[in-house]
């Protein structure tokens, strides 16, 4: 029985190879958003880098967020960098992480870049010999399993304070958890300083030479939210599989809202919620919702499209044009031609409307003008 230990990427699971990530049309906005991220990450020279946005989402759970106004961000950034140049205590390192994150959220790209460059991922030194949690009879029947533990990396490289978010048979789950506690890691770091942070482990056990179909994955996702209604991962998986397979289902919006409420730091869920807000004419709310997603290091054209529609709905033409132009410029050449043309048409619509007298009718930025 082999084990896949990773932060699961749904589109990688569902599409396999690199070129398989490009979806067939028609596809929902959520599906296109996911697939585009896979393609962009695959093409990036830093595709193996740590997903800092996921780290910060984990680290923010249960904590009051540090908030900085845009004019305060440079000072907060400079103070954090200066602090990290010395020999800070763990409390000071944690404070620097919060200040850097807040400066990034306030739109200071220098702070976002510093986080991406200075955050070191944990690396396994010893242990990690995870085995299937299932009895042999279930293994022989091709039993699949997903275990999720919400833990904390300590500065000594040990994993502590684990909470079972999703588990299998009690005995098997404890066996995997014991091995996790016994493992030693090189701890995560910030500018070289060991860091104590929350971390969510996903263990996916897959029988040899077996794979779930998309239909199987969707059925499994439905089962998970029924069994673990407080699991953000379960709701995220359900929302993403519905985006790929059944975006017209009423349950898609419900699953998406639940995923976003349980994990507000998820860029994908936030963007999709913002897209739905745009469709409903809630442009100010959409802009607030999508802004954190715009600050990811890897810009996604569908995130930018959502922001541009929100700006335009608010009558902020210069911002809408600038963001939509950037979205058009970031489109990969291999992306489906109809989608590239749709992005270009939307830009022309904005250019025409923004150049017209105020009384001119604005182009539609609702659901009818783009993917579902």
Q: Topology as H/E string? A: EHHHHHHEEHEEHEEEEHHHHHHHH
Strands side by side in the biggest sheet: 1-9-4-5
Mean of all residue-level pLDDT scores? 83
Distance between the termini: 39 Å
* Helix-strand makeup class: alpha+beta
* Rg (CA only): 22 Å
Counting DSSP E segments of at least 2 residues, the number of strands comes to 9
Q: What fraction of residues sit in β-strands? A: 5-15%
Could you estimate the helical fraction of the residues in percent? 40-55%
Q: Biggest β-sheet, characterized?
A: 4 strands, antiparallel
Shape designation? globular
Discrete helix count: 16
How does this structure look, described?
The protein is an alpha+beta fold and 372 residues long. Helix content is 53%, strand content 12%. The chain is built from 16 helices and nine strands. It has helices at residues 10-15, 29-43, 52-60, 73-84, 90-105, 109-118, 136-140, 170-182, 214-227, 232-245, 250-262, 267-279, 283-294, 301-313, 317-330, 337-355, and strands at 2-5, 119-120, 123-126, 145-153, 159-166, 184-186, 189-190, 193-194, 197-206. The strands form three sheets. Strands 1-9-4-5 form a four-stranded antiparallel sheet, sandwiched between helices. It has a three-stranded antiparallel sheet with strand order 2-7-8. The protein has a two-stranded antiparallel ribbon with strand order 3-6. A hairpin with a 2-residue loop joins β7 (189-190) and β8 (193-194). α12 (267-279) packs antiparallel against α13, α12 (267-279) runs parallel beside α14 and α14 runs antiparallel to α15. The longest helix has 19 residues, at 337-355. The radius of gyration is 22 Å and the shape is globular.
């Amino acid at each position: 029985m082999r084990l896949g230990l990773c932060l699961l990427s749904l589109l990688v699971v569902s599409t396999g190879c690199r070129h398989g990530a490009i979806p067939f049309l028609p596809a929902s906005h959520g599906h296109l958003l996911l697939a585009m991220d896979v393609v962009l990450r695959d093409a990036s020279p830093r595709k193996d880098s740590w997903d800092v946005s996921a780290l910060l989402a984990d680290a923010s759970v249960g904590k009051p967020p540090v908030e900085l106004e845009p004019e305060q961000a440079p000072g907060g950034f400079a103070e954090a960098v200066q602090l990290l140049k010395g020999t800070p205590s763990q409390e000071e390192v944690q404070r620097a992480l919060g200040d850097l994150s807040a400066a990034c959220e306030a739109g200071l790209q220098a702070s976002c870049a510093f986080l991406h460059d200075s955050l070191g991922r944990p690396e396994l030194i010893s242990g990690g010999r995870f085995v299937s949690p299932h009895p042999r009879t279930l293994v022989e029947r091709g039993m699949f399993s997903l275990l999720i533990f919400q833990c904390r990396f300590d500065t000594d490289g040990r994993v502590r304070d684990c909470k079972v978010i999703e588990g299998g048979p009690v005995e098997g789950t404890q066996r995997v958890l014991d091995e996790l506690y016994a493992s030693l890691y090189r701890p995560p770091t910030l500018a070289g300083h060991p860091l104590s942070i929350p971390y969510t482990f996903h263990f996916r056990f897959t029988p040899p030479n077996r794979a779930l179909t998309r239909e199987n994955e969707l059925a499994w996702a439905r089962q998970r939210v029924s069994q673990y209604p407080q699991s953000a991962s379960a709701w995220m998986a359900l929302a993403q599989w519905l985006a790929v397979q059944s975006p017209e289902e009423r349950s898609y919006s419900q699953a998406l809202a639940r995923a976003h409420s349980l994990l507000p730091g998820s860029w994908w869920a936030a963007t999709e919620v913002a897209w739905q807000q745009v469709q409903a004419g809630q442009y100010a709310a959409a802009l607030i919702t999508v802004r954190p997603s715009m600050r990811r290091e890897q810009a996604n054209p569908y995130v930018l499209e959502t922001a541009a529609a929100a700006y335009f709905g608010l009558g902020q033409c210069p911002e809408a044009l600038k963001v939509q132009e950037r979205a058009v410029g970031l489109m990969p050449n291999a992306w489906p031609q109809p989608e590239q043309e749709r992005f270009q048409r939307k830009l022309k619509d904005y250019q025409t409307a923004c150049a017209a007298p105020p009384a001119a009718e604005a182009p539609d930025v609702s659901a009818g003008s783009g993917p579902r």
